[in-house]
Amino acid sequence: MKKNILKRTTSALILLAIIVPFFLTTNLLKNDYGKAIGIIFYIIFSLVATMEIIAWNGLNLIFNIILCLLSTTIWFIPNSIFKNQTYSFELQKIINLFIWQNFSNSIIISLIIIAPTAIFFFLISKRKSFTKFFITFFALIYIPLFLKFLYLYNRINIYLFACIFLIPIIVDTSAYFGGMLLGHKIIKKPFSPHISPKKTWEGAIISYLLGTLCVYLLMYLPKNNVNYVVFTKVTQVVIGMIFLPFLSIIGDLLFSYIKRKIKIKDYSNLIPGHGGLMDRFDSTSLVTIGTTLILLI
Fold first, then answer.
1. 58 — alpha (psi -120 to 50), left (phi > 0) or beta?
2. What is the pLDDT of residues 46-62, one digit of tens each?
3. What span, in angstroms and rounded, lies between the C-alpha atoms of 282 and 1?
4. Counting Cβ atoms within 10 Å, is residue 79 exposed (0-12), middle (13-18) or buried (19+)?
5. Where, by residue number, does the polypeptide cross the bilayer (predicted)?
6. CB of 113 within 8 A of CB of 73?
7. DSSP 3-state percent helix, strand, coil across the chain (nearest 5)
8. Rounded Cα distance, 276 and 265, in Å
């Protein structure tokens, strides 16, 4: 047990030592170098995370590499976020200008480029699994889109970027310790027996309540300071308090469910003791998407 904790802690520290400088450089360098470093880093991140999932779909390596490369088209259509970017206007205005374009264009790209190619590869490979096709298609769209939004927040608002990471960390950590201390003492049935049998209702409830408090304190309480406010409307903070902790829990379960369907323990062994990138960024991804949608309100 102690060896496993030490291994996980060491791996996490090494991972942070690698990725944090890229996160900081992307934000602190407001010139073209900062943009270039950020785009390259996030696209590589996107390719690795996507490949981790689709590598289990039964297609050969060449087909999966082609699909991964096609998924990067989501990064460049539209590409207005990379041009003449200023940092003086409000986050809300940037969101309204940028997010709807990406959602609509991602749907178009997925329908005319990614989906037909994936269908063709599955057909010629004689793979009849609809489940693996759906997981592949989901990963090719969802992962680059989530990371593109994360890049946007990393680039223009480091505080929002930090909040998106802190919420899943608090929810996940409180669920672990809440379950360890109180698990099955009040509610005997497991929280999700078929997807994640070790999770408890006590841990889930504690994590949800602390996550709700966390959303309020981080995203709304500093409302008088423009540099540290995320949700500017009461409607936004109420929806955020209700749904973001829930999405953090569901994000973990969603990617655990995918692993169950393709019968693997971890997506890869990239991070010893933790698994792959999407084993660690599962909750963060759904919190990123959820925050984006709330900001559109």
1. left
2. 999 999 999 999 999 99
3. 24
4. exposed
5. 12-30, 36-54, 61-78, 98-124, 133-152, 158-182, 203-222, 234-255
6. yes
7. 75, 5, 20
8. 10
Cα-Cα-Cα-Cα torsion 226, 285, 50, 36, nearest 10 degrees, comes to: 10
pTM of the entire structure? 0.90
- How much is the average pLDDT of 231-245? 93
Per the CB < 8 A criterion, the answer to whether 149 and 289 are in contact is: yes
Yes or no: say if 257 and 195 are a contact pair by the CB < 8 Å rule. yes
CA–CA gap between residue 162 and residue 208 (Å, rounded): 19
Instruction: Judge contact between 248 and 254, C-beta under 8 A.
Output: no
pLDDT in tens, 113-157: 888 999 999 999 877 788 999 999 999 999 998 998 899 889 888
Q: How far apart are CA 139 and CA 271, in angstroms?
A: 20
Whether 83 contacts 102, CB under 8 Å: no
- Neighbouring residues of 2: CB distance < 8 A, sequence distance ≥ 6: none
Report how far residue 128's alpha carbon sits from residue 194's, in angstroms, rounded to the nearest whole number: 25
What residues contact 263, with CB distance under 8 A and at least 6 apart? none
Let me know: does 185 contact 202? Beta carbons within 8 Å.
Answer: yes
Bond into 78 cis (ω within 30):
yes
User: Quick check: helix, strand or coil at residue 190?
Assistant: strand
Among the listed residues 237, 208, 229, the one whose alpha carbon sits nearest the alpha carbon of residue 163: 229
Contact yes or no for 59/117 (Cβ under 8 A) = no
Structure tokens at 180: 């360890």
Residue bearing tokens 């970027």 = 161
Strand partners, 241: none
Residue 86 confidence class, pLDDT cut points 50, 70, 90: very low
Q: Which two tokens stand for residue 160?
A: 């929002």
Most confident stretch, 99-103, 105-109, 149-153:
149-153
d(C-alpha 234, C-alpha 248), whole Å: 21
